[in-house]
Amino acid sequence: MRAINDETVTDVALEQMAGTSDPRLKEIMAAAVRHLHAFAREVNLTPQEWLEGIRFFTAVGQQCTSYRQEFVLLSDVLGLSALVGLMNDKNGTGFHSDTSLLGPFYRENSPQFELGQSIATKARGKEIALYGCVLDSNGCGIPEASIQIWQTDEEGDYDMQKPEASEMDLRGTFHTDSEGRYYLRSVLPAGYSIPMDGPVGDLIRAQKRHGLRPSHIHYLLGAPGYRELVTALYIHGDPHIGSDTVFGVTDSLVVKVTDQDSDSPFPYLPGIRYDFTLASADKGQVSGRVGADPAQITRVAQGGGSTR
After folding, report:
1. Long-range CB pairs of 10-18, under 8 A, 24+ apart, other chains included
2. Quick count: other Cβ atoms within 10 Å of Cβ 53?
3. Percent of the chain with pLDDT over 90
4. pLDDT of residue 268
5. What pLDDT does 92 receive?
6. Extents of the domains making up the chain
7. Nearest CA to 275 among 147, 131, 137?
8. Residue 274: phi, psi to the nearest 5?
9. 8 Å CB contact between 68 and 104
10. pTM given for the model
11. Burial class (CB in 10 A: 0-12, 13-18, 19+), 271
12. Using an 8 Å Cβ cutoff, are 296 and 306 in contact?
């Protein structure tokens, strides 16, 4: 029997896991054990600190519901979500628009809208137009490309944060026309604080961070034969563009709201024009999502599987 002490326990643990049949699971868990043990040694983790960490992660899990994903939020504020997305981008081929975070407020099966309609069914903010094209890497329009869009209202709240969280607003699904064009109406979203009433909020306060996100609009685009694009457009002039608490802003995704544009399908409205570019799909590289509908995650965790 091999003696176990603070120097040998890592190797002993790895030896026990050596028979893992799934090669990827074996690789990931071996790396996780090595790095976790190295972390504990580096900070000289005490039993009290270890237990406090256990309490923290327990509280994060307890905060998760069908409408709230505290673990995704934690990943976001630690920069892990951004890192995974950026690494995933490097694995693909072909030019595409820059990506951003899916975030913890995405929902599957958003309402279907016709081009030109407004996703603001309840919100009463400043109306704006959103329009442009979905292009391939050669600059040609992609017909019937799917565009899922979601955002906050004029007060900085998502529909999932409202008292009637089951009622969707300021989100929807559109399809481009035969030339790859899209156009719709919405309201100007407000920047907002991430949810601060849970353990992630406690962590942000302890780190003396503001916990704020700049005004933005989420997009999830896809078409057969193309790699899915998860991104967002950030409104120029927001005071937190340079200090997004979840590290989602890229210069190419910062946009200005123009007062009026004669080329707009809605020339009487202020608007945002943006052309998105999708890369061709490689085998095994169709989706770029770092996140999921909170309800989907909750069902899987409860052992019910996913129905979406």
Report:
1. 10/34, 10/37, 13/37
2. 11
3. 79
4. 92
5. 67
6. 70-301
7. 131
8. -155, 130
9. yes
10. 0.90
11. buried
12. yes
Mean pLDDT of the chain: 92
Residue position matching structure tokens 């999708």: 278
Cβ of 38: how many Cβ atoms within 10 Å? Answer: 11
* Residues belonging to the chain: 308
- Pick 302 or 33 by higher pLDDT: 33
pLDDT at 302: 61
CB of 194 closer than 8 Å to CB of 129: no
Contact 249, 233 (CB under 8 A): no
**Range 229-243 average pLDDT:** 96
Lookup: tokens for 110? 């958003």
CATH of 70-301, one of 3.40.366.10, 2.60.120.200, 2.60.40.1510, 2.60.130.10: 2.60.130.10
